[in-house]
Amino acid sequence: MTIEAWRITGQSQIDSYVGRWVELAVLLVNELSVAWAHGRPVEPPADPRAALEEAFTRQGRPPSRALTGADTDRLAHVAADLHAAFAGDVATLNETLVRHGAVPNLHGDPSVLAFHAPGADLVDAWAADAATALAMVIGVGQGRRLRSCEAEGCELVFMDVTRNASRRFCGLSCQNRAKASAYRARRRA
Q1: Which residues share a beta bridge with 107?
Q2: Does a cis peptide bond (omega within 30 degrees of 0) precede residue 110?
Q3: What is the structure's pLDDT at 7?
Q4: Which residues form the Zinc finger CGNR domain (predicted)?
Q5: Is the dihedral of CA 49, 55, 130, 142 positive or negative?
């Protein structure tokens, strides 16, 4: 199994394969499927393809080939489906696995484990691998680690890798906004 409790602390260890595809799921959702981030509405990019390629480059994951407009449109649908998985919607995740032909297999030289058919196009391959990684995290009882930011006005998602799975916010800016808001509410009361 790719995720197992570490023998001493009980902290879950996510292997690099699963972690890599969960990171892709987070990137797709945060770039293509959120309407609010850090308390502000997110304007859809004028050129979603260029924005997505820039996000991949920022994370050091440039695509193996240039994305087309059709790829970007299909990835937006995948991102919406994956976003539902972060909210605990396993039915939509299961539909995504089936729709994109997720099937474990070995291919390449040297052989690499993948969850898409060897001939799958880029979008189906990414969707199948990312959805499988999310399913693996959920399937071993660690679904609570797939989180959405709890700050008001933020829909960004993340994988909580803290020891006790207690992370609540996507980053410090949202954490600071939430704490400041709670402080002001206490002062008014």
Answers
A1: 112
A2: yes
A3: 45
A4: 145-187
A5: negative
- Which of 104, 86, 85, 105 lies closest to 95 in space, CA to CA? 85
Percent of the chain with pLDDT over 70: 93
Q: Is the pLDDT of residue 137 over 50?
A: yes
Closest CA to 1 of 136, 113, 126, 131: 136
Rounded CA-CA distance 33/19 in Å is 20
Residue 13 pLDDT level (bands cut at 50, 70, 90): low
Task: State how far the alpha carbon of 188 is from the alpha carbons of 26, 132, 181, 184, in Å.
Answer: 37, 47, 11, 6
Confidence of residue 25 (pLDDT cuts 50, 70, 90): very high
User: Which amino acid is residue 72, in one-letter code?
Assistant: T
CATH number of 3-188: 1.10.3300.10
